[in-house]
């Protein structure tokens, strides 16, 4: 990549860009021949081995960063001791202040901030943030202790659930975050408790209350009712319940809680997008399962640790989908926010944007399972050279779409859609192109 393009992309001066590249080169030396950056003053080149993932490098950088160390110090100690922390990080107090200021910009979307050495915000948000961060970085769910195993087994027995290995890792990490935070004096729960009020008679929650009290009795603190509330939301909304366990739970839970009602509304909206006869009950149940987790997280939490490039996902969808799934996803998000009494336009809440991506995933599951092959014939009447070139171009653009079979028009065959530039008498849907190579035409054809 040309160094001018790099500077423009980063918005840095030449000196700052050169310094930044030198730091990256030094950092990547840790990975040896598996990953390298070279720079000759004009071009920056990146190369990696086939078995090397950039995610590995990204995680390594995060874990070694001073900002991550500050967050972990806060989790362990609950309050920053500036003298001790600056000594551990080998930085000045002014540098520590700048890093905390930068962290607060990130924490803002989670409704959190570091103030006077403490993490300030709703306790539900603090635990959610640490869980999301540590899960993404692959930290905090190493070998279980006997006590942790006992708690997980108690949850399984008491709730009559069967946790998969991935779910057990998630629970283990949640328990460890809980252990660090449960002794914090005067935690804030005001907003969380208000939102939780409709769930106080939920059968899963009622079963969970005595289990949490017994399991956490060894802590030298009073176990408040909010602990059971937090664990209920975690179990029901953070990919813990299997689909089978959720199905059994869904038969007992109230359909009138905000999220359960939203699950029903969105599912019905999705079913109306397709032919109801083409969606089997098993597929409908799968969608209901995923929607329940999407809406619980959206209702109770704010912010998200984004692990995917959103725009790249949307671009892939535009390339592969036979219709405008992005438009449907954004429509579903708007309806969900209305039902959950939220604003769909809160730009600081990245969980909204990621929820639209999750709707995309649900719709894609349906799209792939119910779509039949759509046969498209291309019948262009122009100069023979242009006919062949334009036909090949359209075939390349349409063949990448799921379930689309495209070929040059053959009068002896039956088609669902015929693309032409003239009048043609066929028993099929006809689309007349406006001009060769038109992006507008391609967009309309995909609809």
Low-confidence stretches: none
How many DSSP H or I helices? 20
Number of strands: 8
Average pLDDT confidence is 88
Separation of the first and last Cα atoms:
37 Å
Give the overall form.
Answer: globular
Please give the order of strands in the largest beta sheet. 6-5-7-8
Q: How much helicity do the residues have?
A: 55-70%
Biggest beta sheet attributes: 4 strands, parallel
What is the ordering of alpha helices and beta strands? HHEEHHHHEEHHHHHHHHHHHHEHEEEH
- As a percent range, the share of strand residues is 5-15%
Annotate the secondary structure layout.
Elements lengths: L2 H8 L3 H15 L6 E5 L4 E5 L5 H11 L1 H12 L4 H8 L3 H15 L5 E3 L2 E3 L2 H14 L9 H14 L5 H17 L8 H7 L6 H13 L9 H13 L5 H8 L7 H16 L7 H20 L9 H11 L4 H15 L10 H21 L3 E6 L4 H16 L4 E5 L8 E4 L8 E4 L6 H8 L1
Protein name: Mga helix-turn-helix domain-containing protein
InterPro entries: BglG_antiterminators, Mga_HTH, WH-like_DNA-bd_sf, WH_DNA-bd_sf
Organism: Tetragenococcus muriaticus 3MR10-3
Structure description:
The protein has helices at residues 3-10, 14-28, 54-64, 66-77, 82-89, 93-107, 123-136, 146-159, 165-181, 190-196, 203-215, 225-237, 243-250, 258-273, 281-300, 310-320, 325-339, 350-370, 384-399, 439-446, and strands spanning 35-39, 44-48, 113-115, 118-120, 374-379, 404-408, 417-420, 429-432. The chain is an alpha/beta fold. It folds into 5 domains: 3-53, no CATH class; 65-120, Orthogonal Bundle (Arc Repressor Mutant, subunit A); 134-246; 255-371; 374-446, Rossmann fold (3-Layer(aba) Sandwich), CATH 3.40.50. The strands form 3 sheets. The chain has a 4-stranded parallel β-sheet with strand order 6-5-7-8, with helices on one face. Strands 1-2 form a two-stranded antiparallel sheet. The two termini are 37 Å apart.
């Amino acid at each position: 990549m040309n160094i001018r393009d790099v500077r423009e992309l980063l918005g840095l001066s030449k000196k700052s860009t050169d310094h930044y590249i030198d730091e990256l080169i030094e950092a990547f030396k840790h990975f040896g021949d598996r990953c390298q950056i070279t720079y000759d003053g004009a071009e920056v080149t990146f190369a990696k081995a086939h078995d090397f993932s950039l995610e590995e490098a990204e995680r390594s950088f995060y874990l070694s960063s001073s900002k991550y160390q500050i967050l972990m110090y806060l989790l362990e100690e609950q309050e920053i001791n500036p003298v001790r922390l600056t000594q551990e990080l080998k930085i000045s107090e002014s540098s520590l202040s700048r890093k905390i200021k930068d962290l607060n910009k990130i924490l803002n979307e989670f409704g959190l901030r570091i103030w006077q050495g403490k993490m300030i915000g709703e306790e539900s948000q603090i635990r959610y943030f640490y869980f999301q961060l540590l899960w993404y970085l692959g930290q905090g769910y190493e070998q279980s202790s006997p006590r942790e195993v006992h708690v997980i087994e108690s949850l399984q027995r008491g709730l009559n659930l069967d946790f998969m290995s991935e779910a057990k890792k998630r629970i283990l990490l949640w328990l460890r975050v809980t252990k660090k935070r449960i002794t914090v004096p005067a935690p804030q729960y005001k907003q969380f408790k208000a939102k939780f009020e409709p769930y106080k008679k939920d059968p899963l929650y009622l079963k969970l209350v005595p289990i949490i009290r017994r399991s956490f009795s060894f802590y030298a603190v009073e176990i408040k009712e909010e602990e059971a509330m937090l664990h209920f939301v975690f179990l029901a909304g953070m990919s813990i319940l299997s689909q089978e366990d959720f199905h059994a739970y869904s038969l007992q839970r109230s359909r009138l809680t905000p999220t359960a009602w939203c699950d029903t509304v969105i599912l019905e909206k999705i079913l109306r997008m397709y032919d109801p006869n083409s969606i089997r009950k098993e597929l409908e149940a799968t969608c209901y399962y995923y929607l329940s987790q999407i809406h619980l997280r959206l209702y109770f939490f704010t912010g998200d640790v984004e692990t995917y490039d959103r725009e790249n996902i949307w671009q892939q969808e535009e390339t592969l989908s036979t219709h405008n799934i992005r438009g449907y996803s954004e429509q579903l998000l708007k309806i969900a926010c209305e039902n959950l009494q939220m604003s769909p336009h809160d730009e600081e809440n990245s969980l909204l944007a990621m929820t639209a991506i999750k709707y995309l995933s649900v719709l894609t599951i349906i799209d792939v399972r119910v779509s039949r092959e759509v046969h498209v014939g291309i019948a262009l009447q122009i100069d023979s050279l242009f006919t062949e070139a334009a036909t090949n171009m359209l075939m390349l653009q349409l063949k990448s779409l799921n379930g689309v079979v495209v070929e040059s028009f053959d009068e002896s065959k039956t088609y669902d859609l015929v693309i032409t530039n003239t009048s043609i008498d066929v028993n099929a849907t006809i689309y007349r192109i406006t001009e060769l190579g038109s992006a507008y035409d391609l967009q309309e054809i995909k609809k």
